[in-house]
Every structure is written in C-alpha cells, then in structure tokens.
Amino acid sequence: MKLAPFIRASGSWRFWSVYHPTSFTPVCARRFCQSSLRPTTSSNETGARPGTAPSNPYLLVLRTPSPSSTWPAHPLVHSRFMRDLSIKLKPHGVVVNVSHDPNNKVDFFDPLNELRDGSDGSSTFLATLYRSGHQPQVVGGANSLGKLLDASIPRAKPPVRERHIYVCTHGSRDCRCGTTGKAVFTTLRSLASSLRPAYDADETPTEITVREIGHAGGHKYAANVLDFPPGDVYGSLSPNEASKFFDALTSSVEPLGVGRRSLDQERFLLSKWRGRLGLTEEEQLAFHAERTRILGRLSSEGTSTEGTMGRHRPAHPVTLNLTFETHDGKTFSISAQEGQSIMQIAKANSVDGIEGTCGGNLECATCHLYVVPPANGPEAPIPPMSETEEDMLEYALFRDDKRSRLGCQITSTKELEAWCSNGGILKLPRF
C-alpha cells in the first residue's frame, strides 16, 4: 500500500488556514473544567462501563516532541498530515493518535508542528503501530507503514518483553483528562521508572514504558489508560488509585499476563476495564461477563488465581523432550524445562497454531491443541479438565470432545516426557 504519494498530494490549505489554532479548548470541554478539579470518585461511583473501548483493530501512535500542554484540541483538524494519514488508514481499521516522546533525540518530523518543519512528514515521521495481542511495530515513514499493513503483524511472544502504558492527558480536548489524567500519568511514570526489571520464566527482563497520549475516547471515564500488547483500555482511574492500579497491572510479569495476581487485584482491574481494542461492544461485554463469572467461582471456592491461571517452574528445572505434530502430520521434538506450560513452550519456540493471546489466563482458546495417545496406549498423564477450561474450549475451532485441551493448563513433567517417548503426541490445530 502506497501512502507517501497520497500524503504529499492531498490536503486543502484553505481548510488549514481556517482551522489552525495553536491552542483551542472547546465549549464542551470548558464546561467540565471546574468539575474536573474536584476529587475524582472511584469507578464504582462513576462506572467504568465495559463495552465502551474503541473497537478499531489498529492504533497508530505518532511521536511528537511537543508536550501535551501544547496539543491542540483537535489534532486531525490542526494537522493536515495527521488528517490525510487518518483518512488513508481508516479503511484498514487504523486510528491515528499522538504521544509525547521527550526522550527521542532523532530529528524526526513533528506532526503537530508541520508548518514550522516545512515538511509533509511522509518519509520522516516516527510512530508505533499497535494491535491487540501483537508485538508493537516501530514505523518510520509512510512507505514502511504501508508495507507493514500489507504484511502479517507477528503475535506478541518471547523474546519480546515490552509493555507500553499510555494515559490520556489531552487537557485542551477535555480538562478532566488534563487534570486527572495528568496526575495519574505522573504517578504511573514515577512508579515505572523506580520499578526493578520484572523477569519472566526465561529470565528475560520486561521493560515498562509509560507515556502520554491524545484523546482516547470517553472523557467522562478519565483517567483513561491503554495497556499494550493486550490492548486493554481502563477508565475511571483516580490519582489515589494509580499506585494500586500499577501494582495490579505489573504483578503479572509477562506482557500478556500469566495470572499471578491476587483475586482482589483481578477484581480491581476488572472494575476499571472498559474493553479491548479490536473487540466489538458485544465481544467486550461477553469477555467481561465471563471474567466476572470466573472470578466469582474462584472466590466461592476460596481459590487464588495463582496456579489456576498460570504455571511456575521449579527452582532447578530439568530439561525435557516433548513430541509435537503439525496439522499436516509432520512430527518434531522440542526441548523444554520442567514446569513450563505447553503454551509457554510453544510460544517460546514460535510454534504455529499456538497463540496464547490471553497469556494463560483462561480467557481464550488460542492455545487449543489435541492430546493424542499412542495406539492402544495410555492416556496422557495430565490433570483432568477444569470447568473453566471446558467452558473456554467452547470457543475453539474444530474442538474434539475427547482430545481437545488448552496448552496453558498442561504442565511439562517427566511423566509427560515418558508418555511422548512411547508414542504420545501433542497435535497442533490448523487454525
């Protein structure tokens, strides 16, 4: 897809001259300025309603050295470049936004000051392209963006360990974002900068970055926070809840969440959850209802989410060999460490057919596989299926009632290795 010629050729300077305020706070935003200065109530009082997150599958975040206090109320009106780029990308499901990047020393195009720069920015802008559950993709210029959209963006999997947290601080658009959002951003950024590196099961550090972002939708839910790579959107977060929110969000060391949070932390995050990018309103509501049901069941059983939604390796892991088979009958062996889940093993080795979008939280069926015993041989030495796993398997394509399991719920053991060596197979689905 060719974007650069479009950006250079399009745009109306007459339109630009009429809508080129450097700072403009609309009446609808000014109306709430006084209320935004009052203490913010909790989400239980304001209602961070699920199903209110944007449903667009992609988010392109342009980097600007301009601080959020200087952002115009409507960047797409202010910037011809951003407007034309947004029009071009909209058919692809891409929403264009802007983020302050004070640390980038590269002399890149500033989309909010294009007149000063004297450039159309088509070849020099820097941005990050996000898709829920996928690796963030750094974009440099329209040509690389076009090629990226024409290709398949890889799923988020090891060894990538980046977590990007954005807070809407767009004060000129709505004062609630400029006050509450700014306060929450300041706290989260401070906590992230003082946080010791988190490590996953493979001792790979997780880097957490907190940045400001433009209007993310839902001013009344300020402060709004976006978390990638999951693509989750949280709202109604008050400044005095920011520390609690950060602790809950980062207590899961993998970027997609391994489920090491307490039930209280899970419930708190769910109370702030507005939805997830790429999901329709109906899908977001269904996700929220299912998550509520799971937490309710665990609470009634007195069970912690740790261990039920994630697996841990022993202190001195043992290397095992497990046998996999592709959908077209090709078998191969993978060396894994005792205690890892099949989902973690598959993702670490880039095995096709296993995505693990939810990170092992029993929130999807994208780690679905078939556990096939040898002819006339014993069944696999794995724990019986839980009610929650059985419910999630309802979403698996081509489910086999006898052989289908979720890889996140199967732990690698010496017994499983012996079963594989005697002909047992972990068969991968086609989809």
Summarize the structure in words.
This protein is of the alpha+beta class and 431 residues long. The protein folds into 2 domains: 4-291, no CATH class; 319-427, Ubiquitin-like (UB roll), CATH 3.10.20. It is built from 16 helices and 15 strands. The strands form 3 sheets. A 6-stranded mixed β-sheet has the order 6-7-5-8-9-10. A 5-stranded mixed β-sheet has the order 12-11-15-13-14. Strand 11 (319-325) and strand 12 (331-337) form a beta hairpin. Helix 11 crosses helix 12 (263-272) and helix 12 runs antiparallel to helix 13. The longest helix has 21 residues, at 281-301. The model is unreliable at 1-46, 115-119, 153-160, 198-205, 253-259 and 304-316 (pLDDT under 50).
Entry summary:
Helices cover 31% and strands 18% of the residues. The chain has 431 residues and is α+β, with helices and mostly antiparallel strands. The protein is elongated, with a radius of gyration of 23 Å.
| Strand numbers in spatial order across the main sheet | 6-7-5-8-9-10
**Could you estimate the helical fraction of the residues in percent?**
25-40%
Kindly, what is the distance between the CA atoms of the first and last residues, rounded to a whole number of angstroms? 27 Å
Instruction: Please state the structural category.
Output: alpha+beta
Number of domain units? 2
The average pLDDT is: 75
Strand content: 15-25%
Largest sheet: 6 strands, mixed
Low-confidence stretches: 1-46, 115-119, 153-160, 198-205, 253-259, 304-316
Based on CA inertia axes, which overall geometry fits? elongated
> Cα-atom Rg, whole angstroms?
23 Å
| Count of β-strands | 15
Number of helices: 16
